[in-house]
Give the backbone structure.
Amino acid sequence: MSLKVYIAGKLYDKEDAKVSVYDHGFLYGDGVFEGMRVYGGKVFRLEEHLDRLWNSAKAIWLEVPISKEEMADAVNETVRTNGIDDGYVRLVVSRGAGTLGLDPNKTSNPQVIVIADHIVLYPDEYYEKGLEIITVSTIRNHPTALNPRIKSLNYLNNILAKIEGIQAGCVEALMLNHKGEVAECTGDNIFLVSRGQLLTPPIDAGILEGITRDVVIELAEKEDITVRQIPLTKHDVYIADECFLTGSAAEVVPVIKVDSRKIGDGKPGSTTRRLMSLFREATRS
Ligand code: PXG
């Protein structure tokens, strides 16, 4: 049976799920999106993802044409129809079809698209042994140019960084911000463990406020681990005891090498492993 994709209130076979080439989402990356996980048939932190989607849309003057309740129903219905037990949901709101000019006022019908699919996970080895990543030359978007808090359809900044990472043989790449501080990876937030404290860049470093990041902060605080959201440099990364990344796709994944430097003893650390296990419990319960 073919996968069904939700577009504007209807479910279409994957092959017939199409939007206009005049859609400004396609022409200009003019739109917003969310990437969510399904565990045991239930969308993880759906409400938080919808809040973030609405905030992204507001920041680009895009009015989502349905309510949050209707969106939640659309997401749950698409997940159910496709029989997704453990999987991935991509939610897209594009500006809609318009003229070939930039003016969003000449578009109509923002498109709401829900894709619920199976997910290709990182291999187990990444979680057991940890990742090696590098810092790339592409800096994260300047917050006053296109704020990284907006999860927009324009992901070229991240894609350019990803290409640099891949060319260096790394599956993730670390981006710095316009001040040279550590920002985030192409699709993941970054955490360090230093002297028993959990460190992560603050939102105003120019990063996406990751839902997984929020969950990990909550879990750490429940464990009485001090969490500090402070500006970090590459030097802080190099001298950290532990490092890990968080994201809806990656969940919590250890990092054991950055820019050819071993982090800690070059093995996933105990705090990282503890948080990985707590995250698994939170999602699989
Ligand atoms: N930073 C950026 C730039 C992201 O795109 C995250 C951090 C982590 O946020 P969440 O809310 O997921 O904890 C993201 C999210 C994919 C994929 O297919 C990417 C993301 C999410 C889901 C899937 O690569 N990025």
